[in-house]
Design brief:
The chain has 505 residues and is an alpha+beta fold. The protein is built from 17 helices and 22 strands. The chain has an eight-stranded antiparallel sheet, sandwiched between helices. Strands 3-2-1-4-5 form a five-stranded parallel sheet. The chain binds adenosine-5'-diphosphate.
Amino acid sequence: MAQGTSPIRKVLIANRGEIAVRIIRSCRDLGIPTVAIYSDADRVALHVRMADEAFRVGPPPSRESYLSFERILDAAKASGADAIHPGYGFLSENAAFVRACEAAGIVFIGPPASAMDAMGEKTRARANMEKAGVPVVPGSNAPFPSVGEARAYAEKIGFPVMLKAAGGGGGKGMRRVERLADFDSAWRAAQSEALNAFGNDAVYLEKYLDEPHHVEIQVFADQAGNTVHLNERECSAQRRHQKVVEETPSPILTPEMRAAMGEVAVRAAKAVGYVGAGTVEFLVDKHRNFYFLEMNTRLQVEHPVTEWVTGLDLVASQIRVARGEPLGFRTEPPRGHSIEVRVYAEDPAQNFMPSPGRITYLRVPSGPNVRDDSGVYPGYTVPTVYDPMISKVSVWAPSRPEAIARMRRALSEYVVKGITTNIRYLHAILAHPDFVGGNYDTGFLPRAHSALLGRHDHALGEVALLAAVVDAYQRDARRRRSLTPVSGQRAGPSPWRLRTRGSRR
Ligand code: ADP
């Protein structure tokens, strides 16, 4: 981020989908005009319709559009935008892009390139954090030059271990290895996966923590170095190491743990000269020890839950900080409870295969304390080329049980036709006893997999059965009442038999 004060008169959003829409909304609240960019696959996307101006940046592949420095900076120049908000994903954690913005005299709404460099590679981040006295997940702080050295290290720290791509993200290039005999083949697989996904085959390893919780701390810093934390988010409901449901406060955190993790997160941010919104991710083990996992140097998908319990607009705060304004808020205890779910165009019954296509009917949830951050509209065609997340539903309530009830209500209002979504699967998570009980770790969704897929049918079956029984009872009661005066008999035929006969007609 360019240090100093900068008015920010027009913001280009270098992103698409729900997050682009989200950023446009905050800009509009602040009275700042917006510029959307779009690829040919997004010509009629919601963010293009909502922005004040829109510029085509290329064909559908991200490499040639949403990841093209040149085309994005050209659009900024042509539109007169003096700042770029990167959203999440795409160029949001690309230090070279931050430098390119600086060179073009454009404010990058995010941290300085140096902070991204310090936290970008997982191994470098781990080394930097250890230096700052932050506890890190036990493991190596540099990639291994050979499989032999990696294997020897794995034996030293003990199995199971987690192989990880140093340049990784999005759960890719990550492999759990149970035993020595599997090590070499897992190593080769992780290396080639890392090379494919990140163009870098550097792999390192960590001790595999048994059934950890993923708890992250939102941090915020202004250009003067004031750094605060905005409490935690519990993100242990994960599928393939990707978050599906998030909530705050974490059901497992005590106020003391929150304060300790918050202090460490602030220390981590200060150690790298952080500015703006960032997230320090931790794994928490069974004994409630917490370890630094990584820092995301950007806005997170799940930021709305923090907004609900703090009352802040994090995107507006990012813009204010980028203008050189002081933070204007401090750490406060969370107010009430918030939950978010990620709604995907995918089919849980088909191994979560993406389900792109045209949305023929859409009814989104609303009502008290329900928020739907969406990137779609009725008649919109979800493209095949990008992430299939179509919206995020978040709710707020005074307590966790009320928040769960509210989310279940919201999901029951959500109707999407034309494509398949994971809405029923999300509903099943919210109804699962482990989730309701508030003690779920990162193994929860894999463990509950078949129950969650079968549960909705089972649950609906139960509901249908119950409804059928009630209906039968009421109809028969009515029938009995109408039969009694006519026949004058108190004891008529069994209502169940009557119903059976009736149903045969
Ligand atoms: P990415 O950057 O690819 O998202 P992370 O390092 O953030 O990867 O890890 C994502 C998830 O993978 C974590 O939330 C956790 O569920 C699991 N994970 C990562 N490292 C470990 C580990 N050492 N032990 C157990 N689980 C881990």
